[in-house]
Amino acid sequence: MREATLPFPVLQPHQTHDDRVVVVDNPAMTRADLEGVDALVTAIPGFAIGVRTADCVPVLLYDPCHKVVAAIHSGWRGTVARISQKTIRVMAEQFGTVASDIKGVIGPCIGPDSFQVGQEVAEEFRNAAFPMKEILSDRGKRVEGTMQGGLHIDLWQANRWLLTEMGVQDCNIQTAGICTYQHNELFFSARHEGRHCGRIINCIKLGN
């Protein structure tokens, strides 16, 4: 949130809206080591990892059986690229994670009423085989200068669908349901303020 202070150091990558996932196995790693990375996975106890967002979707994952956590930056491009699914595959390959054991959180991000998109963005989701009836709504004539009308994508549902398609149980996924665009007095919103605004730090760590 805008006025929040991190209670502990958090390793954050230099995100580029791509789908690269890195396993953090050395607590000495720094942001300089994580250029072009949009998801982190770690099993280091007491070591916090996080991603920066301002309308993009933060996805946090926890495997309680193998004691592994992940922090994912999933903007609309990362969502189309299925970065959360790629992260789960990395967790499975490196640590033996079973998707049905995972607990997930979809944090504050731009909501469906505010994520108005053009036809070209909608086509990106369609071409990536997303369930368009579940995530796309046509709200009629677009009202210039507002988020009224036009095509809207539900990134909350799109990311929830990605997790359940991988085998994460729906009952183990918590969606914050907070729109950063509508609540920009509390959260940073790049669409509302411009891309040079501040960022929300979404972090997760294992207990010692």
Task: Explain what this protein looks like in three dimensions.
The protein has a domain at 21-108 and 156-204: CNF1/YfiH-like putative cysteine hydrolases (4-Layer Sandwich). The protein contains 6 helices and 11 strands. It has helices spanning 76-80, 83-95, 119-127, 132-135, 155-166, 190-193; strands spanning 21-24, 39-42, 49-53, 57-63, 68-74, 103-106, 116-117, 136-138, 151-153, 173-175, 200-204. The strands form 3 sheets. Strands 1-2-5-4-6-10 form a 6-stranded mixed sheet. A 3-stranded antiparallel sheet has the order 7-9-8. The relative contact order is 0.21.
Quick structural overview:
The protein has 208 residues and is an alpha+beta fold. The chain has helices at 76-80, 83-95, 119-127, 132-135, 155-166, 190-193, and strands spanning 21-24, 39-42, 49-53, 57-63, 68-74, 103-106, 116-117, 136-138, 151-153, 173-175, 200-204.
